[in-house]
Amino acid sequence: MIRPEHLPGCILLTGTPGAGKTTVSQLVAERLPRAARVDGDVFGMMLVSGRANMIDEQGSWNPGPDGLAQLRLRATAACSTADDFADAGFTPVVDTVVETRAELAYVHGRLRARPLMLVVLCPPLAVARHRNATRAVETRVDYDVAPLARNQERELGDLGWWLDSGEQTPEQTADLIVAEAVRRAVVTDADVARPRPGADRPGFTAGLEEAAVE
Ligand SMILES: Nc1ncnc2c1ncn2[C@@H]1O[C@H](COP(=O)(O)OP(=O)(O)O)[C@@H](O)[C@H]1O
Ligand SMILES: [Mg+2]
Question: Which of 109, 99, 88 lies closest to 38 in space, CA to CA?
Fold first, then answer.
């Protein structure tokens, strides 16, 4: 197993549900000498009451304004926690969904830890669906992840490291990330500022953009 020197900055692992974020982020953290896995889902689970429903009547992922604000809260909390660990000398390995360019810019702007290394796990959709269908029932999602995959590709396709783990074991993916994230995954200020065609559905920054325009 690779045991590299301390890795400064923050690794952000994203991708659709079933892509392997949770599995791989744990293995990446295990391979680093001082690292913490920051699970974005945990911050959602901390909401004991008042949690917004993200799924609409058709069973699709479709958060309303309250849901988007709660997704933003999760991201904000994940950034704060990641920075706390980074300040204490641990490499944070964040496991969360970032879908749009504006969401990434939000995270990049919040997070103090540098560099930010973005790894998008992008196994073929059929593989992500199969992984989702065969994992523990409590972590399984029922909605179609294709719209997320499409928007994520459109919005973030030119940023970070898009890693097709479809034919890899989780251990192989983790080894590769530890070995090459510094070279392949770093996202800069200029990267997040570069324009893109535009999201085809709102991200968790939607309310902020409206507020900025008013
Ligand atoms: N190469 C791989 N990378 C990640 N997960 C894999 C891989 N091959 C099979 N799996 C399995 O697929 C599932 C991925 O689930 P998970 O890590 O929870 O995904 P996510 O957090 O992205 O929703 C797990 O059950 C894992 O064991
Ligand atoms: Mg997960």
Answer: 88
